[in-house]
Amino acid sequence: MEIGNHTRFKKKIEITSLEPLRLKECVGGTGGLCGSALLNAGFQEHVERCMGGKENFKDFTKRVPYAWPICMKEFENSTKKYFHPDNGAVSILFPGIDIAGMEPNYILLTPEDLQRIFERVINPTVDLVQDQYDAIRQMGKYPRGIILVGGFGQNDYLKEVLENKFESADPEHPCEVTRPLGGWSAVSQGAVIHALTNDTLVQSRIARHHYGVLVRQPYNKKIHTEKYVVTDEFDGKKWVDNQIEWHIHTGQTITAGSPIKINQYLVSESKNLLVSESATIIVSDEVEAPKEFESTDLTRILCTIESSLENVEREDWKTYRRKGEKKHSALHHTIKMSLDSELSFQFCIGDRVLGKTTVAYE
User: Structure pTM?
Assistant: First the structure.
């Protein structure tokens, strides 16, 4: 589990080989907004209340600009790392501040204050781990360990809470909570190692969403609505726009290094060939992926692949003129979807990549 500055993200990884080390996801990763950023926000809100409101805080930090960075540095390096509800009150250096009932130049955090600030991160984190733990058990497997990395992952109290919750949850199959040396920088270290070695440790991943491509389909009144029906200018037949072809579904296992290949074609006037094209990638969290695209909170455009066709050879276009049709040309191409360390989408003609885009995992 990575608990960093702004987010918490948890994956369940199964070791498939020790020599060489190879891993795979056994359930889809989950995550959310959390981490040190929310602790910092909670601490600042507490200080603002002690000072009588946001405006007083802003006025003071403008007059004494060096004070708040000093205060935050001590909160980051000491309070955050060593917080435990049994440790009692904490005074944090805040140069120039003078609040009634507190020692000058210090801000006081009572045990109740600390508990309120830290629970906003710890409680959701425990819930997140519980969800993943239960998902593994439902598969008939047993979680063997929880590894804490990231900045707030180094907090002793968080480790203690997780130990109390999960190490004794199933005495016959204990789940150990560990915190590796240097775990605070694990994400950065992993990125550097991956860049230097280009080695894929994680051999397969579990899709967290449905992924598809926006397409036009031949109209079928039994399955399509009339809303997006159009008459094609080349063949004169009815087609329907705004349809989605789904190629990856939530929970599907995707092998690293083996992109999903989607064969498509686009049509153009033969005398005036297209010089660019775009492909729209759709993502959905619906239980059953919709057939027609309507933007909602659960179904949305993930990205668009913009591709230049200016360097496509004339012979790559196939010309057609069937009876009753207008002369036109078609260009067959492939959309490649890859779910590796990032989401990657490519627009290809044969082995040539004409357009690509990458998206960070949500």
Answer: 0.55
Count of CA atoms in the C-beta half-sphere (13 A) of 4: 11
Per-residue pLDDT tens listing for the chain (362 residues): 444 444 444 455 556 555 555 555 555 555 544 556 788 889 999 999 999 999 999 999 999 999 999 999 999 888 888 888 888 899 999 999 988 778 899 999 999 999 999 988 888 888 888 888 888 888 788 888 888 877 677 788 888 999 988 887 788 888 888 887 765 555 555 554 454 444 556 667 778 889 999 999 999 989 998 999 999 888 888 999 999 999 999 888 887 778 889 999 999 988 889 999 999 999 999 999 999 999 999 999 999 999 999 989 888 999 887 777 788 899 999 999 987 767 889 999 988 999 999 886 55
Give the start-to-end residue ranges of the domains of the chain.
1-206, 209-359
At 193, list the tokens: 């190692």
187 close to 260: Cβ distance less than 8 angstroms: no
Alpha helices in the chain (DSSP H): 36-50, 54-63, 67-74, 80-82, 111-138, 156-162, 186-197
DSSP single-letter state for residue 149: B
CA 142, CA 251: separation in Å to the nearest integer?
19
Closest by CA to 216, choosing from 308, 320, 292, is 292
Which DSSP string do the residues of 255-321 spell out, in sequence order? Answer: ETT--EEEEEEEEEETTS--SEEEEEEEEE--SS--SB----SSEEEEEEEEEE-TTS-GGGEEEE-
- Residue 61 near residue 157 (C-beta atoms within 8 A): no
- Residues 6 or more apart whose Cβ sits within 8 Å of residue 248: 207, 209, 210, 211, 212, 254, 260, 337, 339
